Structure formats: structure tokens, C-alpha cells
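stage 2 :: seqdesign
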């Protein structure tokens, strides 16, 4: 992804690794300086100081260039991943996934870890630099004194506990997903003007706050416990390493006192001891980072695979008819929502004649809205079929079919745009056509909504925007109906509870038209 986003920026990031290699040699230059001082070798001391100074300058320049490129690239890659996640989620042709707890939990994990995918390139470069530093540090340590190998071995427990920490991280992410969704929902309720009225009338603000606090606690508690357990293990590993380092350095000091070890080797060992500790932590960080990235990438790939599976299941290519001859026939149509115990629609057989107006009447929960969404291809039948002039809806290009339909839905969207766009998006090619919008408003008996708006079609809707105007529930529904009237000759026009929020006079006017 990084190379695809910006190849040159990716190459510049590698300069940081070159700077790391140059910086690795600094302890060696210092050891040369000490050795020259002990032997009163002035040329060696001058050469060591020059090399040390040059390495500091080059290291700083290269790391600044590489780090700047890496941070910029991280933002670009993160944006590319966020854009791809949004595209996949929005382009899935059906609505089933938005009512599946399993899907929503996985999406919540991606949201909670949304910086991880963008930071994947950053972590990769950091890991590469860290492993390069580790290899160089170990090589320098072995050239200084073989006993420093004991410090390398003392860092191995850190690698062992990394596997445990990775498993704990995965469990924490999974257990926090559902509470995280609940916390987001309760927060949205508390900050919504619509819900705010009910919270105050029924006196449940305190109860809602308490539930929000509990949800946030349940959401963040796994991460807190993970941090405690992780810090305890890492602290134990660090203590073991420093005890080992103290013993090894004491051993080398005793040898240096009897001149069995050169002073330069002792100086190099002291400087490398801390670096070896950092090396162990770097390897642990690298493993943990790759594990985390692999886990989050797995969620992303699952999302992408889900999109492909849904598309493959309904990959019809036929064009819808130009006009109906016989109409729409439902044969033994059954549909169940994800994880539901009983079907929402069971064994429905129905003929909708071409050119006819058909009213579906039933109790709440009888499945009328579900049937509307099945007809528009928002859901796919669990069993049975929908025939359009003897052609199965599943065989049609779903986007082409939807372009041939229009309607207003019970759970209509409140699009906080200009009125022109709020209505006009019902037919995108004519979204900026004022005449078409006026015709749609007339067809929906909603022209008088414009009379109370300060700027007519140019009025910004939504009080949360500067200069925006809020509407009543009935006014929002009337604009939604007008949006459904934008397509002048649809093959199928559906009106799902179109007058639920309208007063009796407006309802009568709408049905008269």
C-alpha cells in the first residue's frame, strides 16, 4: 500500500535506516578514543573524535529526513486505508451487515484500532530499523567481549512473554467491541436534541449517564487490565536483565583491574549494556507490532472478503425491463434477519400488477417494511423468489434495478444539506435542477415547506450548522417524500408509511395527488 501511495516517499523513509547504521558505530568510536588516550596515541584520538562527530551529524540529518518522510507517509497510508474501509462499508449492496452483531463488532474493532492500519507502514519502518539496530548491537557486543552474549540470552524471556501479551491483546479487543458500540450509542443519545427531550421529560438523564459510565468502563477495562499485566511482566523481565547485566559488568571490572580486559573493551561493554536492553525491548515491540498489525489486517481482509461474498451472491448482470408487462410476482418469499429466531416474512405469495397501486395493510411488525426492502433489493430472500416479468430479481444488475425504483421510507434519512440537495439527491443527474426539485415538492404536496424557510431551496438544513434551520418531524418526512418523487417514471415506487409524521390535512392533500 505504501509504495502504491507514494513510491518516492517510501524510498526516502529508508534513509532513516542508513542513519541508524551510522549511529551504531558511535560506541566503537568512543572505545577507540579511550584506547588512544590510554596509549597516548594522539592521531587515533583525533580520528576517533572526528568519526564520532561526523556520525552524529550524518545520523541526525538522515534520521530527520527519513522520519519526516515516514510520518507523512503514515498519514497518507492511513487515509488510503480509511478511504478503503469507508468505500467497502458503503458499497456493500445489501443492508444485512448493518443488522449483524458479528459484523458490527468487527467494524467496531477496526474503528477502535483505526490508527493501526495507517501506522502499519510506520511500524514496519520502525521494526526494520529496530532489527537492524539489534543485529548491529549484538555484533558489536560480541567483538567487545564474549561474556556480553549472556546479556543477549537474558533478553530472551522478553520474547517469550510477547506471545502471551499478543493473546491478551486479541482477547481485550474482542471483549471491548460490544461495550464500545453501546458507549457510542448512549453518547449519541445524550448529545441528540431529539433524544434529549425524552431524557429530560422522563427524568432518565442520570440513569443514562450511569449506563454510559458503565459502558465506558466495560469498554476500557480490558485495556486497563491488559496494561497492568503487560507492565508487570515487562518489569519482571527488565529486572532479570539488569541483575544479569550487573553481574557481567562486575565480572569484567574485576578483570579490568588486573589488566585481563582492556579499558576500551570495558567502556564499550558499559555502553552496549543499555543498548542490549533496548535491543530486547525493540525485538519485543517488533513482534507485538507485527502481531497487532496482522490481527487488524485480518479484520480488514475479512471485511473485504465479506463484500466480495455479498457481491458474488447477487452478481446479476441482466438489465431491468424498460416497462412492466405483467408486474412483480412474489413466490413463497421468506426472509429472516441475522440471528433471528423466527422469519420476519414467511411464505408470501403476491402479485403486484403492472401499473397498479397496491396498498399493504397490517399490524406493526407484520413485515411491511421488510417486504419493501426485499422489493428494492436491500435484503436478499432467505428462500423463495421475486420475479419481475418472469425474471428473478437476483439475476438483475442490482444497481440498475435500484436506478429504476424510487420511494420514501419509514426510517427516512435526515440529510442536513441545502434543501435543493436534500430533495435533489433522489435523482442525482438532476440534483442541481431547481425546476425538477419544485416538481417533486409539488408531487409530494410539500411546496409550502419552502414558504417557512428563509432562503427557499438554498436554505441549509440542520441547526448544528452555521445558519442552519431545523425542521419538524413532519417537514422532514415531506422532504423525504419529495425526494422519492424526483424520478418521474420509475418502474417501482414504494411509499413506506409515507404519512406517519404528517398532519391530517397534509395527509389528505398527498393522497389526493
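stage 2 :: out
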Amino acid at each position: 500500500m505504501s509504495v502504491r501511495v507514494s513510491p518516492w516517499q517510501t524510498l526516502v523513509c529508508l534513509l532513516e535506516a542508513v542513519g541508524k547504521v551510522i549511529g551504531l558505530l558511535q560506541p566503537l568510536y568512543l572505545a577507540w578514543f579511550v584506547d588512544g588516550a590510554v596509549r597516548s596515541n594522539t592521531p587515533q584520538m583525533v580520528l576517533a573524535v572526528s568519526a564520532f562527530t561526523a556520525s552524529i551529524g550524518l545520523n541526525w540529518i538522515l534520521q530527520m529526513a527519513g522520519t519526516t518522510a515516514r510520518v507523512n507517509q503514515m498519514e497518507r497510508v492511513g487515509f488510503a486505508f480509511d478511504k478503503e474501509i469507508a468505500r467497502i462499508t458503503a458499497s456493500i449492496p445489501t443492508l444485512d451487515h448493518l443488522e449483524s452483531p458479528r459484523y458490527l463488532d468487527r467494524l467496531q474493532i477496526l474503528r477502535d484500532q483505526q490508527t493501526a492500519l495507517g501506522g502499519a507502514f510506520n511500524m514496519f519502518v520502525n521494526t526494520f530499523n529496530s532489527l537492524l539496530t539489534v543485529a548491529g548491537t549484538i555484533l558489536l557486543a560480541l567483538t567487545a567481549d564474549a561474556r556480553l552474549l549472556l546479556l543477549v540470552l537474558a533478553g530472551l524471556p522478553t520474547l517469550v512473554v510477547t506471545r502471551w501479551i499478543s493473546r491478551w491483546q486479541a482477547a481485550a479487543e474482542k471483549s471491548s467491541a460490544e461495550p464500545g458500540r453501546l458507549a457510542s450509542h448512549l453518547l449519541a443519545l445524550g448529545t441528540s436534541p431529539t433524544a434529549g427531550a425524552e431524557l429530560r421529560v422522563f427524568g432518565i438523564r442520570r440513569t443514562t449517564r450511569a449506563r454510559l459510565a458503565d459502558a465506558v468502563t466495560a469498554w476500557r477495562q480490558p485495556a486497563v487490565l491488559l496494561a497492568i499485566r503487560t507492565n508487570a511482566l515487562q518489569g519482571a523481565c527488565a529486572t532479570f536483565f539488569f541483575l544479569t547485566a550487573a553481574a557481567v559488568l562486575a565480572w569484567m571490572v574485576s578483570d579490568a583491574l588486573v589488566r585481563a580486559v582492556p579499558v576500551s573493551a570495558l567502556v564499550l561493554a558499559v555502553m552496549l549494556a543499555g543498548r542490549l536492553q533496548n535491543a530486547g525491548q525493540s525485538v519485543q515491540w517488533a513482534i507485538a507490532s507485527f502481531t497487532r498489525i496482522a490481527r487488524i489486517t485480518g479484520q480488514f481482509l475479512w471485511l473485504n472478503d465479506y463484500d466480495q461474498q455479498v457481491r458474488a451472491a447477487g452478481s446479476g448482470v441482466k438489465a431491468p425491463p424498460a416497462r412492466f408487462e405483467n408486474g412483480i410476482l412474489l413466490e413463497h418469499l421468506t426472509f429472516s434477519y441475522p440471528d433471528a429466531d423466527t422469519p420476519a416474512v414467511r411464505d408470501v405469495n403476491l402479485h403486484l400488477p403492472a401499473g397498479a397501486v397496491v396498498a399493504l395493510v397490517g399490524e406493526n411488525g407484520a413485515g411491511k417494511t421488510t417486504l419493501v426492502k426485499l422489493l428494492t433489493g436491500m435484503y436478499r430472500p432467505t428462500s423463495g423468489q421475486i420475479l419481475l416479468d418472469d425474471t428473478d430479481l437476483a439475476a438483475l444488475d442490482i444497481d440498475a434495478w435500484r436506478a429504476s425504483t424510487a420511494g420514501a421510507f419509514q426510517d427516512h434519512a435526515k440529510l442536513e444539506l441545502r434543501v435543493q440537495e436534500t430533495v435533489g439527491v433522489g435523482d442525482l443527474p438532476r440534483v442541481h435542477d431547481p425546476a425538477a426539485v419544485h416538481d417533486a415538492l409539488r408531487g409530494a404536496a410539500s411546496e409550502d415547506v419552502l414558504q417557512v424557510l428563509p432562503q427557499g431551496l438554498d436554505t441549509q438544513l440542520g441547526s448544528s450548522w452555521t445558519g442552519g434551520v431545523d425542521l419538524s418531524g413532519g417537514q422532514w418526512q415531506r422532504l423525504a417524500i419529495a425526494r422519492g418523487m424526483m424520478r418521474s417514471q420509475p418502474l417501482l415506487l414504494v411509499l413506506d408509511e409515507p404519512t406517519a409524521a404528517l398532519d391530517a390535512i397534509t395527509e389528505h392533500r398527498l393522497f389526493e395527488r
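stage 3 :: structure notes
- The radius of gyration is 33 Å.
- The beta strands are 327-335, 345-353, 383-388, 391-392, 405-408, 492-495.
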